Amino acid sequence: MDPRVREHASVLVDWSARIEPGDDVVVSVGEGAHQLGVAVAEAIGERGANPVVTYGSDEIRASYLDAHDGEFAEDPDHELALYRNADSVLFLGGGRNTSEMADVPSETRKDYRRSRTGIREARMDTDWVSTQHPTRSLAQQAEMPYRAYRDFVYDAVLRDWKSLAAEMDRLKEILDAGDEVRLVKAETDLTMAIDGRTAVNSAASVAYDSHNLPSGEVFTAPFATEGTVLFDVPMTIDGKRVRDVRLTFEDGEVVDWSAEQGEAVVTDTIETDEGGRRLGELGIGMNRGIDRVTDNILFDEKMAETVHLALGRAYDANLPESESGNESAVHVDMLTDMSEDAELLVDGEVVQRNGRFRWEDGFADA
Amino acid sequence: MDPRVREHASVLVDWSARIEPGDDVVVSVGEGAHQLGVAVAEAIGERGANPVVTYGSDEIRASYLDAHDGEFAEDPDHELALYRNADSVLFLGGGRNTSEMADVPSETRKDYRRSRTGIREARMDTDWVSTQHPTRSLAQQAEMPYRAYRDFVYDAVLRDWKSLAAEMDRLKEILDAGDEVRLVKAETDLTMAIDGRTAVNSAASVAYDSHNLPSGEVFTAPFATEGTVLFDVPMTIDGKRVRDVRLTFEDGEVVDWSAEQGEAVVTDTIETDEGGRRLGELGIGMNRGIDRVTDNILFDEKMAETVHLALGRAYDANLPESESGNESAVHVDMLTDMSEDAELLVDGEVVQRNGRFRWEDGFADA
Question: InterPro entries in the record, alphabetically (chains A, B) (predicted)?
């Protein structure tokens, strides 16, 4: 076994999920994540916790959904009971075909999702963490050879998380104290209000209210957006390739938009509901282990020297208690490259220039 | 997909487990049973039942057990809650290495088993069924090519179960009415009392209190065993190969024994406890789809033209209510070939001769 599989398991169990002796853990093993499952089981055994191992197979899920008449039972008792009694849930993603669910009608998926609100809430109430084992299917999606893709994944996952968390805290402090963020680059000059909002230091650990491994971003919930922005990092939205999206905001709302490729899916997003026209998230990628786009949002949005904005739903963690932020049925992230001729300013002061933060070496000459 | 995989799933879901709309089902998918998992998910979807899919991986289990200090938590809440709220549990066996658990100390396995008594009971309280997908590993254990092994498995599983159940009922009636069974063949003349005991028609369906697919045996709980018996069908007990076991009984107890191969494990069984010296089961194989030994007790003990006897624990289903039969920590099945120069008699009347029952064509000349 590649020794990095065991290291991945240790980071997941100790840094991310903070598994303790006696914890009741659900481990969901993807079709291609068997090896990571073995390593995680070993780590859980060493910590003296209690695993139930589920099988996260897209092929099995698709086959079930496809055969079902669509009248799904509401939160089946046995599954609800499993998650209500769990302390942690570890999702080991990594399948064998990212298109396995492609022919399940989106209506069926939505109905299924809707029928399981209680189960999802119970799961979200645990110390859950989502990660991915490098599989050939994900390498293919990233247009990379498997060998190189494994290196990519482990560079992203096996960080010095403690030191990255400390660095991200500096940015969080600036954002928490600030009132306004401005992005300036080619075809982009965008201003967003952030006063009263709290940034999340997403340091890949439940201790930071961060549930993805890898993580490595600081995000908040902006509002009152004004100006234009170019998203020049290619991505996939709802299975469709999207390139060079341009948005213009007035009074916090998108008033004009275009895309070189995939404009229809951008339009669908914007026209979903009221909230689809407004931003729900401003995220700043800080994981320097992620140095390329791999068409996988779990990784892409944490890439250092990028910023992402999401149309749609805001996260509660960014909002003052009792205040509700942007509400929407969607949350669609789009990325812009900040590595060249680009500045991120907070209250008029440059915090990041050409991908370098002001506390980093080389910021002055950047 | 081999169309027989879907047929297997249908037999399992409809005939064996009697899955109904709305049932909460746990499906345990073995490492090599993915394809059957897909077909079972489809069948469950069609029936409108609700699956939780678990991953029955020996490698993950061994890795967990091996890493654990052995102080296992008693019936972890989340797992107990899952099974207490389930209507049915379907075990889709079929791994990738039958020796995967070989280096887990038997003490660890026993401690783990003991810590999960409540979970096991909750599982046994459901309409559970255990079956096996044909895998290369099981083909290897059977010393057969994979192609031929698949044919073997589907011949065993895809029976006309309704008609076999009716035939087995004839034998059950004879045993229920009878007081004594006698086996006569080379080096064998064994008499067992069965009066007051009830035979189980094990027709591979929860409707018959039968939880294995394939099944196809009628079994009861004998006592007061007298005489000698030769078990000439090779088998594996506790991972050890065993051949030509000879037992001599007096007053229901083994008083003398030998084996051409593996005598030590036979001795261990007999000396486990008081019940290890007595029979707990007499089973008569009636599945004509099983025409050879494959070193897999789920199949071997149902093979037509064989009889098996188990040293150790008797099943409650065979006993009058409030009566406890033979009690023991072990239950070890051993087989004898009844196809040649062999008779099975009930109260002195020949019921089976050279593998043919008296209601079958050819019995007169057998």
Answer: M29_Exopeptidase, M29_N-terminal, Peptidase_M29
- Using CA atoms, how far apart are residues B296 and B292, in angstroms rounded to an integer? 11
Beta partners for residue B311, in sequence order: B279, B332
Q: How far is B353 from chain A (nearest CA, A)?
A: 47
> Among A13, A40, A44, A78, which would you mutate to test the B interface (most chain B Cβ atoms within 10 Å of its Cβ)?
A78
Task: Provide, as residue numbers in chain A, all residues whose Cβ is less than 8 Å from the Cβ of B53.
Answer: 54-55, 57, 60
What six digits make up the tokens of B31? Answer: 């490492």
Q: Hey, is the C-beta of B68 within 8 angstroms of any chain A C-beta? A: yes
Q: Assess whether pLDDT exceeds 90 at residue B120.
A: yes
- ipTM value for the complex: 0.92
Q: What backbone torsions phi and psi does residue B107 show, to the nearest 5 degrees?
A: -65, -45
For chain B, the domains span: 3-157, 161-357
Fold classification of B3-157 is: Thermophilic metalloprotease-like (3.40.1830)
pLDDT band at A323 (very low <50, low <70, confident <90, very high): confident
Residues 82-111 of B with CB under 8 A from A: 82-87
Burial class (CB in 10 A: 0-12, 13-18, 19+), B57: buried
The pLDDT tens digits for A298-319 are 999 999 999 999 999 999 999 9
A79: chain B residues, CB-CB within 8 Å = 24, 50, 52, 82
Q: Which of A332, A325, A331, A357 is nearest to A231 (CA)?
A: A332
Distance between CA atoms of residues B153 and B136, nearest Å: 12
pLDDT tens-digit map of B131-186: 999 999 999 999 999 999 999 999 999 999 999 999 999 999 999 999 999 999 99
Q: Is A122 left (phi over 0), alpha (psi -120 to 50) or beta?
A: alpha
